[in-house]
Amino acid sequence: MSLPASLRISTEVAAALAARAPVVALESTVITHGLPRPHNLKLAKRLEEVVREGGAVPATVAVVAGEVKVGLEPADLERLASGGADKASLWNLAALLAAGRDAGTTVATTLFAAFGAGIKVFATGGIGGVHDTPFDESADLVALANYRVLTVCAGPKSILDAEATTERLETLGVPVVGYRSDRLAGFFVEETAIRLPSRVDDPAAAAAVLRAQEHLGLGAGVLLSNPVSSGLPRDRFATWLHAARASAAAAGVHGRDTTPYLLDAVAKLSDGETLTVNLRLLEENARLAARIAAAYAGSRSAAPDVVVGAA
Ligand code: PSU
Ligand code: MN
Predict the structure, then answer these.
(1) So what's the pLDDT on residue 12?
(2) Angstrom distance (rounded) from CA 250 to CA 247
(3) Where along the chain do its domains lie?
């Protein structure tokens, strides 16, 4: 049996990359598992539009009929949004390809594909990380360490242990940078209590961090933490999450089904408020990513590699 191409890059994205024009990768687990229908398809189209308005080419990544596609056709988006697609992370990607399946790509697999294609900037909602149940850690952390791409996010997913996630990112050597903020973003909540080691205040400064990482030859990506513009009060969200956890435990939900279940439950408990904030932060991250991709494309790589002696 022969496999299809490992990475199928759309003509538009390939042309932009060849011209070193700004390109922004977008993930698709948000379409297949993160948002309910019909919001998922509307949002997927809207994010591509936002990236274009920002002067960059959108490259939504997904597994379609056993191929990792970078840059989707409208028909692909509709197919993924209509239900039945799997969720592809690094540990099940090969099997999904071999079986010819459709799947949304998580941050981990989107980073893998973006890096392979030569894309420098990626926008998502929240990253996977360390769960508060023992021994459940997202492969997103490993991918952030292995693929040198700048990821714009609103912090770790709301259901994670943000402190433990930050510690793991530190161990893995992933620079976490606050965008106009000194504290880690808290997804639905604007900021967590966690102080970040560095911040930037404009897209050019964010692009410069990626340039520096490349210049040093360090392999890890850069995680840009972009707080949502008007989030939910921390204690209200905590109440909904507490109730959602109780119902997940009662229903015996675990592993990779946990996130979609909890997000769905808090959306219902909040009467749609979490959904509104989720859509807003996704759009804001795509908008910022486009500006960073443009700044990166317009910047030059830094000075010589190693200098011996006095200046
Ligand atoms: N944040 C959300 N909803 C999601 C995700 C993040 O609010 O659906 C997705 C992202 O694609 C992320 C993935 O990469 O969940 C992580 O899943 P896991 O913890 O199973 O690795
Ligand atoms: Mn997991």
Answers:
(1) 98
(2) 5
(3) 1-119, 126-298
Dihedral, CA of residue 191, residue 43, residue 73 and residue 294, to nearest 10: -40
Query: What band does 304 get if pLDDT is binned at 50, 70 and 90?
Result: low
Same fold, 1-119 and 126-298: yes
| pLDDT > 70? residue 302 | no
Q: Which ligand does the CA of 188 lie closest to? A: 1
E strands in the chain: 8-9, 23-26, 57-64, 67-70, 86-88, 103-105, 121-123, 150-153, 176-179, 183-186, 189-195, 198-200, 222-225
Average pLDDT over residues 112-137: 94
Question: pLDDT tier at 135 (50, 70, 90 boundaries)?
Answer: confident
Our answer on whether the CB atom of 89 is closer than 6 Å to any ligand 1 atom is: yes
CATH fold of 1-119 reads Indigoidine synthase fold (3.40.1790)
Catalytic site residue from 69, 87, 157, 283: 157
Note whether 71 and 13 are within 8 A (CB). Answer: yes
Mutate which of 31, 92, 105, 107 to test ligand 1's pocket (most atoms within 8 Å of Cβ)?
107
Question: For 126-298, which CATH class?
Answer: alpha beta
Ligand 2 centroid from CA 196, angstroms: 25
Report the predicted TM-score, pTM, of the whole model to 2 decimal places.
0.94
**Of 207, 143, 157, which is closest to residue 185 (Cα–Cα)?**
157
Looking at residue 259, what is its pLDDT?
Answer: 78
The size of the chain, in residues, is 311
C-beta of 153 in contact with ligand 1 (< 6 A): no
Note the pLDDT of residue 303: 61
CA distance 158 to 165: 12
Confidence band, pLDDT 50/70/90 cuts, at residue 260: confident
